Amino acid sequence: MQFDTxxxxxxxxxxxxxxxxxxxxxxxxxxxxxxxxxxIDPSLLDLHAGxxxxxxxxxxxxxxxxxxxxxxxxxxxSFAAAIRAAGEGDFDSLVAVGxxxxxxxxxxxNLYSTYPADFLDYVNAPIGKGLPIPGPLKPLIAIPTxxxxxxxxxxxxxxxxxxxxxxxxxxxxxxxxxxGIVDAENTSSLPSAVASCAxxxxxxxALESYTALPYDKRHQPKHPSERPAxxxxxxxxxxxxxxxxxxxxxxxxxxx
Length: 256
Ligand SMILES: NC(=O)c1ccc[n+]([C@@H]2O[C@H](COP(=O)([O-])OP(=O)(O)OC[C@H]3O[C@@H](n4cnc5c(N)ncnc54)[C@H](O)[C@@H]3O)[C@@H](O)[C@H]2O)c1
What we know:
Blueprint (H helix, E strand, L loop, with lengths): L13 E3 L7 H7 L5 E5 L7 H12 L4 E4 L8 H13 L4 E6 L1 H15 L25 E5 L11 E6 L4 E6 L7 E4 L9 H20 L23 H21 L1
Parallel strand pairs: 1-8, 2-3, 2-4, 4-5, 5-8
Antiparallel strand pairs: 6-7
The chain binds nicotinamide-adenine-dinucleotide (NAD).
């Protein structure tokens, strides 16, 4: 086996800051959005995050509809409902407001409403066919309200495949949100149990990254585009992972 000699950092587009959620309406105007589907966790509709996003869209006169039939720990069936909604309203853009469950639902809705296909076509093999996504999707702005999954930065959508009782996903760089707006004000309503689980998610991701097989001990693909999203530990991800571990130790108990 020939070991790989390269890794690639594909940076995500993230805006970070207290109150940054209020800017989402302006972002949509700048993207020339004509009609936006807001996919939101139902429990956030009357909380700070939901109110701030919808106010911002109204202020900027963005035409939008709301889909809130999101399931926590989404399934193929709950994805299907969001896909139907996204395909019905002539939407040219999406906003996701919620935790990983909601952001992943919005990614699937964006994918299948842009490139309709049998559901299993894009799902990871061996459960699905693992077909590549044919091209770029509609703009998706992801506004996380938990602080663990990092779904606002990843090209992954995870769900439970009910029939096979499996947890699997869809993975492709085109699934990555166009912009992630990370605003600590949105996590202020989190129940402490969710804050602690999200913190343990950060801890696990950091430990996993830091202890993963290094990129240069992995098989070298024939073509650079075949390098997987999770390509092994490397000197850049080591810096992020170690800093994330320090932050968890320093702040998790206070956040909970
Ligand atoms: N796409 C990725 O890269 C990625 C990575 C890791 C995990 N995931 C997936 O993300 C999902 C888990 O997401 P999660 O941990 O962010 O939580 P979640 O979206 O499942 O939400 C957890 C709970 O918190 C509530 N909630 C969320 N934000 C809130 C807020 N601000 N105030 C009050 N309540 C709030 C929700 O209603 C829900 O009850 C899993 O399905 C997991 O597989 C995805």
